[in-house]
Amino acid sequence: MKIYHLQHDQRVFGRLVKTFPEGIGDAFHALLETVGDDKRSYYGISKMDDKGAILYWAAAEEKAAAEAEKYKCERLVIPQGDYLSETVLNWKEKTGCIKDVFHEMMKDARADTAKPCIEWYYKDDEMLCLIKAK
Hints:
By secondary structure, the chain is an alpha+beta fold. The chain has one domain (2-132): Multidrug-efflux Transporter 1 Regulator Bmrr, Chain A (Alpha-Beta Barrel), CATH 3.20.80. Helices cover 19% and strands 41% of the residues. It has helices at residues 24-35, 67-70, 98-106; strands at residues 2-6, 10-16, 42-48, 54-61, 74-78, 81-89, 117-123, 126-132. An eight-stranded antiparallel beta sheet has the order 1-6-8-7-3-4-2-5. Strand 3 (42-48) and strand 4 (54-61) form a beta hairpin. The longest helix is centred in the first third of the chain and has 12 residues, at 24-35.
């Protein structure tokens, strides 16, 4: 596991996936259709609510001010700082295993498990699993 340093807060916008995990693919497809831009990074952001249910947002990098409002989406911020990271190659063939990567990462004493888990889809066939470091 490597440390990835995010130099600046990353502003993103997206929508909460109403049927997790079944609705993730449809949510990203709808977001891509709405934004119409595959030249930006996309993110999956997940955290547990007070009842232990997973909340998951399909999100896109905000490249211009007010894009969240323009597309009627929620704005989220991925804070700068150090993250534990694992790269997943050919992620489209491994969507069922991504949760296992995060489970292993959360066992690391450096992981701040109170913070959201971030899936950063920065290449078509490569993504980065990130958990904020303590």
